[in-house]
Design a protein that fits this description.
Length: 96
């Protein structure tokens, strides 16, 4: 299974190589945006846009509301995973 993560383009870092800095849940990563922008004008206009990021590539522009819904769901899944892991740990014996 493959998973794309919503991220917001915060700056263009290399026009020639079509690289942008994308903020993904507070972490900034260099991402190739060639799939969503073919020229310098499209690159410049993509700053502030939300994109679906998969293995270092921005695969598509996405709606900001849908991006936030996905980020919220991923956060909930992470919290559920942590709760299940804590539940699976053996209970510590209470002191006598």
């Amino acid at each position: 299974m493959c998973l794309g993560i919503p991220g917001q383009i915060v700056e263009i870092i290399d026009v020639e190589r079509k690289l942008a800095m994308v903020n993904v849940a507070g972490v900034r990563r260099s991402v190739n945006v060639a799939c969503i922008a073919s020229n310098a004008s499209e690159l410049a206009s993509s700053v502030g846009e939300w994109v679906l990021v998969h293995v270092g590539f921005a695969m598509a522009r996405i709606d900001p509301v849908e991006a936030q819904k996905t980020l919220d769901l991923l956060a909930e899944l992470g919290e559920a995973r942590d709760a299940l892991a804590a539940f699976a740990e053996p209970a510590l014996a209470e002191p006598a």
